[in-house]
Amino acid sequence: MQPRTDSSVPQPENDPTPRRRRRLAIEHIRYAAVIGAATALFLSAVTYLWALGKAVTFVHILAVEGLSSDPALVKLFESIDSILIATVLLIVGFGVWELFVHDLDLPPELTTTSFDHLKGRIAGTLVLVLAVRYLERLISKPSPEEILALGISTALVGGLLLVFATSRRSH
Fold first, then answer.
1. How many Cα atoms occupy the beta-carbon half-sphere of 52 within 13 Å?
2. Which of 16, 42, 24 is nearest to 7 (CA)?
3. Which one in 5, 56, 134, 164 has a CA-CA gap of 20 to 30 Å to 22?
4. Any idea what the Cα angle at residue 133 is, between residues 127 and 139, rounded to 5°?
């Protein structure tokens, strides 16, 4: 006996009921994440170019003032800082795309498998940004009190980021 092929009986994938249409519409809202992913990727590219500009300035200052130049060292740390921020934006862009839109053919280091995974990678990179910012401030030779206050605040924020990165959501 042949299966019934009556087109008047709605098939699940072709079900025109309002409930199915609402469900499909809600499921497709996830593609709004394309806007966030594209924005993060665009900002990442711009920030990498900004870091390149800082690197060129670093080389210029180094050539003019010599190897013992504190301003050159500050520019070097600023360039590294910009690269790290651009990397965070790149990780966010790829991560949001992979979580909400579609898997990408990326190296394993850039793939994102869950929100917790993305959160941990972002927090880890932000800890590096904090460390670089701390080093930038040390170059300006602050007072011992400022060094202590900045060190404590950097350690506290970095520690909170690491706790945030390692905490898991309950399902």
1. 6
2. 16
3. 5
4. 140
Question: What pTM value is reported for the model?
Answer: 0.73
One-character DSSP codes across the chain = -PPP--TTS--GGG---HHHHHHHHHHHGGGGHHHHHHHHHHHHHHHHHHHHHHHHHHHHHHHHH-TT-HHHHHHHHHHHHHHHHHHHHHHHHHHHHHHHT------GGG---SHHHHHHHHHHHHHHHHHHHHHHHHHT---HHHHHHHHHHHHHHHHHHHHHHH-----
pLDDT in tens, 111-131: 888 888 888 888 888 888 898
| Distance of alpha carbon 42 from alpha carbon 75, whole angstroms | 24
Backbone angles phi, psi at 102, to 5 degrees: -165, 150
Is the C-alpha dihedral spanning 155, 75, 41, 32 positive or negative?
A: positive
What is the Cα 139 distance to its own chain's centre? 27
